[in-house]
Design a protein that fits this description.
This protein has 229 residues and is mainly β. It has no helices and 15 strands. The protein has a 15-stranded antiparallel beta sheet that branches. It is globular and about 45 Å long.
Length: 229
C-alpha cells in the first residue's frame, strides 16, 4: 500500500515505539446520510482539479510523485467518494499508479475507503496489484485519515484489510516547523504512522493547514508545487 495523500514506502526511524490505542471505524457504521460530497477539511483539503507534485526517494532512488484530485467519483457503501490519483515515477517512467477513494462526513472528518494500486514495470506492464482494497469487500473496513478537529494525542486507524492494510496514525505536534520548496510554516502538524504488519517501522508526516501533506522526512519527501484548475 502506498499513499501520499495517504503513503510512500515506510521509513524505519525507530524500533519498539510506543503507540496509543487507535480509534476505529467499521463499514457497518457507515451511514451515507452522514457524508457530504465535498472534502474541505483544512488539514486535508481535496479540491477537484488540484495537482500536487512531490519529490522523494524510494529504495535510495529519486522519485517524483504526482497527486491529482480528479473530478471523478466512486460510490462505496453508498457513500460518494472523491477519486485521487497518485502516480510515482522513477527515472521519468511510471513505476506505480494508484487510485485512492476519500469522503468527508458532516463533522468534517476525512475517511479513507480504499485504493486500487498497480506496480508498473519499466516496460510499462502491470506486475502487481498487491495492496488494493475496498471498504465493504472481503472484510475490509473504511478508516480515518484526518479528524475534523485534530489535537495532539489523537490516534486513528486509517484502513483495515486483514493481513494486507492495517495502517494507524497518531498526532504528535501542532507546532512543527517545516520548509519545502512550496511552503514554509512554524505551525504544521506532525503525525506518526505505523502498522502491526511491520513491527518497529515508524513513519513521520508533516501537514500544513490549507494545503495538506507537505513532507515525509523519512523518505525525503517534499512538496514542490501545487496547481489548481
Amino acid at each position: 500500500m502506498r499513499r501520499l495523500v495517504t503513503t510512500i514506502a515506510l521509513a524505519i526511524v525507530g524500533l519498539g515505539a510506543v503507540v496509543a490505542p487507535a480509534s476505529t471505524a467499521r463499514s457497518a457504521d457507515v451511514d451515507p446520510a452522514n457524508f457530504v460530497r465535498r472534502i474541505d477539511n483544512p488539514w486535508y483539503p481535496l479540491r477537484p482539479g488540484t495537482t500536487c507534485v512531490f519529490t522523494a526517494a524510494s529504495d535510495g532512488k529519486p522519485t517524483r510523485d504526482v497527486v491529482t484530485v480528479t473530478r471523478q467519483s466512486k460510490t462505496i457503501l453508498g457513500v460518494h467518494c472523491v477519486v485521487v490519483t497518485d502516480n510515482a515515477y522513477e527515472a521519468g517512467k511510471l513505476s506505480e499508479a494508484t487510485h485512492d477513494w476519500f469522503a468527508q462526513d458532516k463533522r468534517g472528518t476525512v475517511w479513507y475507503f480504499g485504493e486500487a494500486t498497480s506496480t508498473v514495470s519499466p516496460a510499462g506492464k502491470i506486475t502487481s496489484t498487491k495492496g488494493s482494497w475496498e471498504a465493504g469487500v472481503d472484510g475490509a473496513e473504511a478508516g480515518i485519515v484526518m479528524p475534523a478537529r485534530p489535537k495532539v494525542g489523537q490516534s486513528f486507524r486509517q484502513e483495515y484489510y486483514k493481513g494486507r492494510a492495517e495502517d494507524h496514525f497518531a498526532i504528535e505536534s501542532m507546532a512543527e516547523r517545516v520548509s519545502t520548496p512550496y511552503v514554509t510554516s512554524r505551525h504544521a502538524m506532525r503525525t506518526r504512522e505505523w502498522s502491526p504488519l511491520e513491527p518497529g517501522t515508524i513513519e513521520k508526516k508533516i501537514y500544513v493547514r490549507g494545503i495538506g501533506l507537505v513532507a515525509d522526512p523519512g523518505d525525503h519527501l517534499v512538496l514542490v508545487s501545487v496547481t489548481k484548475r
